[in-house]
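Proteins fold reproducibly. Take a sample protein:
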Amino acid sequence: MNKILRYFFIFSTLSIIAFTVDAREWPDNPTFVMEPFGAAKGGHFSRGLSFLSEGQRVKAWGGGEVIWTSDSGDGLLVVEHEDGFRSSYNGIEKRPDLNRSVTRGEWLGYAGGDSWLFEITDIKQSRIVDPITLLPSRKNLNSAPVGVVELVNGSRHLELMGEVELPPGRWTVVVSDFLSSGHDAIPVEVSLFWVGESIGSLRFDALEESDNGVVLETPEPFLFRHVYNPDGQLWFPDVLLNAGTGTLELRIRDEIGRVVSRSWKLTVR
């Protein structure tokens, strides 16, 4: 069996929290999601869900206390919840008669501009949380799309299509057009397998802010930009492929639990 270099980049998951916190209210129509959590746009990473704006009403994700409002810029409203979460509504026009105390599903204001952003923060653990993990499941969605997948070694780029022959060495697996749309089911976990063994896993549950940027939590903090770039490319770096033949498989699990798989036969010599 070919030797492989094992490496794991795994987000600190919020699966325990997701089971102990009730799925609450969608703040907007679920079909209006434009970009998912973590998506790259204009050189920045999205810290929430971006919704299409058509002047519609925006609702409170859960009951709590309004701790901040601002009419400057695009408009901002922040609600603090008793269970250690904070929800932010960036890009809405606040309802004039809104009380300080709000209930789940209460109308907060109107969506403004072309889009508005919904964020959830776990203030106890100082994490930005993927809202999709704490919202009721969406139904009747297309599977998460998979863009072009390439193997990259220096200046050499090999698009994976069917059977591929390549020299041995360390390669980077690049998945293009990742997190490109919120209209399809959103990926929550991406795994890479070589000859049936897992060689990498990325889980999109929570991010943490640091002075150096957005960080995924591994046994040692790791910068998100090292595995995902503003061009929408996801990287599995430093995959060691020695001489032999085997199957490389990419698996993507989406928000409703489906797994999409693509595989390629590699001849390394």
